[in-house]
Write a structure and sequence with these properties.
Blueprint (H helix, E strand, L loop, with lengths): L3 H15 L4 H13 L3 H13 L1
Helix pairs in contact: 1-2, 1-3
């Protein structure tokens, strides 16, 4: 079960990638997603948003 914080973290990662923010910031978000084991979900959601 995912928490609200997990969902917000995924959304922050996707937005940071879309807006080409600081690569170090994106890397920190990605490491936290990996730590929470939700990186795959975030990457799938990011891919879906690109297709739209």
């Amino acid at each position: 079960m995912r928490t609200l914080a997990d969902k917000e973290l995924k959304e922050a990662y996707i937005k940071a990638c879309e807006q080409n923010l600081d690569p170090l910031f994106i890397l920190q978000l990605r490491k936290e997603l990996e730590r929470r084991q939700i990186i795959r979900e975030a990457l799938e959601e990011k891919k879906r948003k690109r297709q739209i």
